[in-house]
Amino acid sequence: MDLVLIRHLKPFHVAGICYGATDVPASFDIADLRLPEELPVASTIWTSPLSRCLNLAKNLQFTLGLELVVDERLTELDFGVWEMQEWDAIGAALIDDWIASGFSNLHQGESLMQFDSRIFDWYTDLDRTMNHVAVTHAGVIRSIHRQFLGLTLNQSLSLPVPFGSGLKITLV
Is pLDDT above 90 for 39? Predict the structure, then answer.
């Protein structure tokens, strides 16, 4: 099964802000995408319900003529009380504590374990006889790399996932 993972385009007005599960607007002009040269023949575009993904996915659906499925499980990590706070205001010490805790729900949102479990559930529901496209977030893309392509946590966190980038991976 081929899976094309597309990160949403750059959100507007959120530089330096923690905005995981918050719905922030972004461009959805497919001319700004950097997709793999050869897209596999796919049946479905999956998308996060957040507008920065959904609007882009709708545009791709119209262009590619595929079925669109909105799935909450493709939403970015919920940072709880940190959502829409400046990273500098959250502070390096608190972020270091979060990392040291194994990315727990110190911020009263989702732990990394809860997040990965949600992504795993989505992946296991995919029809492996078909190819898919997913418009989603950097955290989701890194989780898939960690869980299904064998990257370590540190490798996945270091994985560059530019806005508007698309990556085709083959999974079993």
Answer: no
How far is the CA of 153 from the CAs of 83, 139, 168, in angstroms? 22, 12, 21
Question: What's the rounded mean pLDDT across residues 120-140?
Answer: 97
- CA 1/CA 15 separation, integer angstroms: 36
Q: Is the pLDDT of residue 50 over 90?
A: yes
**Topology (CATH) of 2-170:** Rossmann fold (3.40.50)
pTM: 0.96
Q: At what angle do helices 112-124 and 138-148 cross, to 10 degrees?
A: 70
| Residue 125 buriedness (CB in 10 A; 0-12 / 13-18 / 19+) | exposed
The domain segmentation of the chain, as residue ranges, is: 2-170
Flag whether pLDDT at 107 surpasses 90: yes
Query: Cα angle at 157 between 152 and 162, to 5 degrees?
Result: 130
Distance CA 141, CA 7 (A): 8
**Placement of tokens 């897209």 in the chain:** 39
What is the pLDDT averaged over residues 1-10?
97
